[in-house]
Amino acid sequence: MNATIELLKSHRSIRKFTEQKIPHELLLELVRAGQSAATSSHVQAYSVIHVKNPTNRQKIAELAGGQAYVADASDFLVFCADMKRPTEASERTGANVVRGMTEQLLVASVDTALMAQNVAVAAESEGLGICYIGGIRNNPQAVSDLLHLPEHVYPVFGMCIGYPAQTPDIKPRLPVEAILKEDVYDDDQQQVAAFDDTMHRYYRERSGGNKDADWSHNLTPLFDTKLRPHMRDFLIERGFEMK
């Protein structure tokens, strides 16, 4: 495999960082690399908030569920889906802009995710570690208020970036046979069962035998409750009406 593929396959989330700071020019280069990601119709429907204020970093760490590494990492970025910039640009040309379409929400969210993943890969290529923080959607309105996000902009996730102070094992992924379908969708229960065995061994080894779980059981908290039920109303309030 070439170096790029090996880098991609070596990803792991980093939650402990050294005190070394990322040079500002390097951080700018990471964001520029993010901007080179594919973007639907060249809309570039994202904005990135570099949260430098220590007090705000600590508040976000608490709002995200007490994730201390939000405050401890060298840098913390909040990736926002942004339909304000492109719709206003179109409006300035005289267009009769229609806002609040579901497709606009999808385009902005996908654009943001693609851009962020480019940043993540660029960071890891420089020996940095990253951790996505979806927990900011636990309290998206409070995060939006803290960052002064306007209408038609919403925080999708955060990202800790810094120099790693740990080397965790790479977490196994589903077998490619479960993901890659030929021509049509087919059932993959056999592959899932095998993956449950793989993850059971992984958790037992990583925890010294203290964690008795597998992939399917770990999914239970995500699907046996209404996860973040506030998000629909929040998005509508942001101007993403999903029409």
From TrEMBL:
Keywords from the named record: Flavoprotein, FMN, NADP, Oxidoreductase
SUPFAM superfamilies documented for this protein: FMN-dependent nitroreductase-like
MF terms in GO: oxidoreductase activity
Domain Nitroreductase: 9-163
Pfam family, one: Nitroreductase
NCBIfam families named in the record: PRK10765.1 (NF008033)
Membership in a protein family: Belongs to the flavin oxidoreductase frp family.
Protein name: Nitroreductase
Organism name: Onishia taeanensis
